[in-house]
Amino acid sequence: MTEPDKTVPANQPADDRRELMRPEVELLPGRNSSRYGLLFALGAVLLTTLVAAPLYFFVSLPALKLLYVLAVVVTGLREGSRPALVVAILGLLAHSFVFNVPHFHFGLPSQDDLYSLVIFSLIALACGPVALRIRSQFFELHLSNRYLEALRLLGQDLSVAEDTAAVWRATARELRSALQTDCWLLYSENEVLHSEPPLETRDEKALQLVTWTLGHSLPTGRFVNERDDSVWTVFPVMHEGKAVAATLLHFNKNPDRLPDFDRELILAIMRQAAATWGRIQLSSDLEHARVHAEMEQLRSAMLSSVSHDLRSPLSAIMGAAESLCLLDRQLSAEDRRELASMIRMESHRLDSYIQNLLDMTRLENGALKIERDWVSVGDLVGSAISRLKRYFPSVRLEYHAVEEPPLLYVNPALIEQALFNIIENAVKYSPPEEAIVIRISGDDAFCRIEIEDKGPGIPEHLLEKVFDMFYVIGEGDHRKHGTGMGLAICRSMLAAHEGTVWAEPGHTGGTRFVVEVPLVYPDNRNDSFNEDL
Questions:
Q1: Which of 147, 170, 190 is where one domain is finished?
Q2: Residue 530: pLDDT above 50?
Q3: What kind and span of H or E run contains 451?
Q4: Which domain holds residue 114?
């Protein structure tokens, strides 16, 4: 399309906002019509004469002239100097015709009448400019209030805007309200042109103007290009020297020009919208940078942990296997059993690490399917203890259960794995001679499982941090056996069942982990439960 003329720099801010907001004479409705002013003057003279007639018998003639002075002042303040001069002349003629002797007869004007005419004329000439100034100040105050109110309402909407679409919706709504005209905000995201509100028009001219404005960052259309006879006007929403959106205006009343005040109001609203858009974009960029940094930190920690913790069992397995291969004839039967046992134990340990990594990946990606079934909490705890005995045959456990352990509607494998991770963590950090205490309790809503060790304990400020990914509290040689994934996986598995787990100081030292799983019974289960059945 042909490049529009840039005759009016619409995006150039004014040096003095008061000058832009100053009303022009033609913007004062009904105050410059000669016919209206003349009719008002005639009515004022007639009304004053009718009021003065009954007062003629009670007051003097000079006092009656004061009524005409009042008529001159009122007309001058309301309609200007010319109608006030008409009242001054006609008022003196009416006073002379009606009240001077002989009545209802025009005689030669006296010297007092001439003095009165001069004074009336001076009053009329003085009232006109004063009235115009008062009306101009009043109109300017009205425009200023409209300007500030529009920005205030827009600021309220933008303060709660959470995304860019909300910014453009609020801006378009306020422009429509302030200008009393059709307005759209168009912006481009991923090469697709969006509109707030939706633009229901097939006018290709409007879309061409918007595209040109977004590409050139300049206003175009009517009131900007003198040769453009379309009904559309487009202003760019500028941010850091670039158009991030375009304001498309369609004036229903089809005015001949765009008032300076409306132009300044449009630009002020768009500047505020652009600033809010920039703030949201900056916040989004910072959030993306933070997430990216956390992902990089997590990836680095995972690689470091995996490389260290997987290397240890692999090295033990490879060393034991090489010893069996190279020293087969030199080893006794007891040595072979010990090496074979080491290979088995380290293989289970390696399998546990890999399984934890897989479970955490599935939980984070939402790919782990929750297949629920009814199972006794006692069976889950017993199964976890049985698995633990295979890896720690000498561990001491104290198991306290209620007479009738409640039934849980859960995925048995996931809950068992969560309990196993917590019990295994307690075994690692508890002295060998101390027992791990496991208690089962609950109420009508939750089943509670408490696992308490006699280890060194966890500082209160770290009780929540131990559930973070890859976080390990180092205590001597225990650190080399931990990846910091077990408790994080445990919390994720329980959260998938609407349950939770937390840590607190134990009764006699050490740490107590409390697991809560909600109880779901057939008489109060929800719709999702019925679908699962």
A1: 147
A2: no
A3: strand 446-452
A4: 31-147
